[in-house]
Write a structure and sequence with these properties.
two-stranded antiparallel sheet; binds fe (iii) ion; Ribonucleotide Reductase, subunit A; binds benzoyl coenzyme A; about 45% helix; about 475 residues
Length: about 475
């Protein structure tokens, strides 16, 4: 298995595509359809080159090369992390057996389903972010948007490769359908809820890359544990790219909070809308929204699907091999909080196997808390008492136990009337969204930045903030 990537062939890859002519031809047949989709649904905004990183190796160091690239000429390819010698199934009923290089017949449908769901989110996010280039706060941000978009496009390639290589005709049909469904389409929407929401402004983009890309991190982390080795290896490499997406989110929100804090100090008021800043209560509402739609992506707290995936070895837990238990979980149970019709919370004991979506969600939640701690430190450093927080996981949910209940950000179960009276305090209103949109005037001059966000502390690849990250027409 070469670490280096073959860039001479039409589709860059490190999977020896040239040795499998049938597969190569099939993927070369899909490639123009992908490029066509990219042209129609990919980022708007003409430019003459973006300072992008492209993967050149899957090894530990120096895996990426940075250069100005004309975006439609980006070399999307198929990159799998290096195989682990003698890798064994780490959990479930096949624990200890060699991992699979082919798809076992009995798990074909489930594996295909997982790969299709994962693959569906990648192009969906590109569609959601399609217009953001028209209102970027700086060339640095514009560059990051394009970087995230091309890599989400590559993540689609990663899943399409698996579908073509291992799932026959059905896999090829699913690969076509991934380009056919569209975010927000009334007739053929994307599969998961959060991927049909709009990402209409840059605060939403930072929140999305913080909260929703982070779901990606946890889902990919659990698929990386899969006994189906090609899936595991492709997810390992995707996770490498994913780190940058979350950096964009974490530092993006940092920069908005920093700028708002500066304006609050300067004008000695929390009401900074009039001076072109984003008030902290609007930032809180954005957190409430993006965090809770991302919680929905973990599925129900109890799930027989998740139990079956685990037992079969298809999808593990976050850092499965570091867990100190039998990795089969057939005799264990956990307690979980459940809202009741009478307005109280009860505790229910359920088999651990059924609660694996909740297990992953809990890992995700504790990671999300780190961002809030950072953002509050910025407020503290500016001498501001306001604190941001994550709402209760039952708030604003459409999937799982809490869907169908009205739950406030502090976890109180309330009636419909109370909910309706409170929701404009908790979730972005039409006016809030319109206000944030009104701030989104593009700033395309080198070294300049919009007034509602602070510049980044570090540039990309050691370049300064005023570097020509994007060459505009
Ligand atoms: N919306 O047993 P349950 C990323 C369906 S993000 C609509 O609770 P399960 C990225 C579910 O399919 C990571 N439907 O769910 C981020 C099931 O349907 P069936 C994406 C939903 O199966 C940013 C039924 O409800 N990757 O990479 O345990 C930018 C019962 O559900 C939703 C993955 O998600 C929903 N939110 O878990 C770019 C990994 N939730 O089977 C990219 C692959 C559930 O009864 N997916 N349903 O027809 C999975 O592991 C699982 O499918 C889920 C759901 C975790 C999503
Ligand atoms: Fe992705
Ligand atoms: Fe991502």
């Amino acid at each position: 298995m070469p670490t280096n990537i073959d860039y001479d062939s039409k589709i860059p890859n490190n999977v020896a595509l040239a040795d499998d002519r049938r597969l190569q031809r099939a993927l070369e047949g899909w490639q123009p359809k992908f490029l066509n989709w990219w042209g129609e649904m990919g980022p708007e905004l003409e430019n003459q080159g973006v300072y992008l990183r492209t993967a050149v190796s899957v090894g530990r160091d120096g895996w990426a090369h940075f250069d100005h690239v004309n975006v439609p000429d980006y070399r999307w390819g198929i990159f799998l992390a290096e195989p682990t010698p003698d890798r064994r199934v780490a959990f479930g009923e096949h624990k200890g057996q060699p991992v699979w290089q082919q798809v076992p017949g009995e798990y074909r449908a489930d594996l295909q389903r997982l790969i299709v769901v994962q693959g569906d989110t990648e192009p969906a996010s590109v569609e959601q972010q399609r217009l953001l280039g028209l209102s970027a706060p700086s060339l640095y941000d514009l560059r990051n948007l394009f970087q995230v978009n091309v890599e989400e496009g590559r993540h689609l390639w990663a899943m399409v490769y698996l579908l073509h290589a291992y799932f026959g005709r059905e896999g090829r049909e699913e690969a076509e359908a991934l380009l056919y469904r569209n975010s927000g389409s009334p007739d053929s929407p994307r599969i998961l809820g959060a991927f049909n929401e709009e990402t209409a402004d840059w605060l939403a983009f930072y929140m999305f890359t913080y909260f929703t890309d982070r779901d990606g991190k946890y889902q990919l982390g659990s698929l990386k544990e899969s006994a189906f080795d090609p899936l595991s290896r492709t997810c390992s490499f995707m996770l490498k790219e994913e780190a940058h997406h979350m950096m964009v989110g974490t530092t993006g929100v940092d920069r908005v909070v920093t700028r708002s804090a500066q304006l609050i100090r300067e004008h000695d008021t929390l009401d900074i809308a009039a001076c072109g800043g984003i008030p902290l209560d609007i930032i809180q509402k954005y957190i409430n929204f993006h965090y809770t739609v991302s919680l929905d992506l973990f599925g129900s707290e109890t799930s027989t699907n998740a139990a079956n995936y685990y037992t079969a070895g298809l999808k593990g837990r976050w850092q499965e091999e570091r867990r100190k238990d039998d990795h089969r979980l057939t005799d264990d149970s956990v307690f979980m909080d459940k809202p009741e019709g009478d307005g109280t919370w009860s505790q229910e004991e359920v088999p651990t196997l059924l609660a694996l979506n909740l297990d992953l969600r809990d890992e995700y939640i504790s990671d999300c808390k780190n961002g809030v701690t950072r953002w509050n430190r910025i407020l503290e450093d500016h001498g501001i008492d306001f604190r941001l927080r994550l709402p209760h996981p039952g708030f604003n949910r459409n999937v799982g136990f809490a869907s169908g209940h009205h739950i406030t950000p502090d976890g109180t179960i309330v009636d419909e009337q109370t909910w309706e009276a409170g929701r404009h305090h908790w979730l972005p209103t039409t006016e809030d969204l319109a206000f944030v949109r009104s701030l989104m005037q593009p700033v395309y001059e080198r070294g300049k930045i919009a007034q509602w966000v602070a510049p980044p502390v570090n540039g990309i690849n050691g370049k300064p903030f005023d570097y020509e990250y994007v060459r505009l027409v």
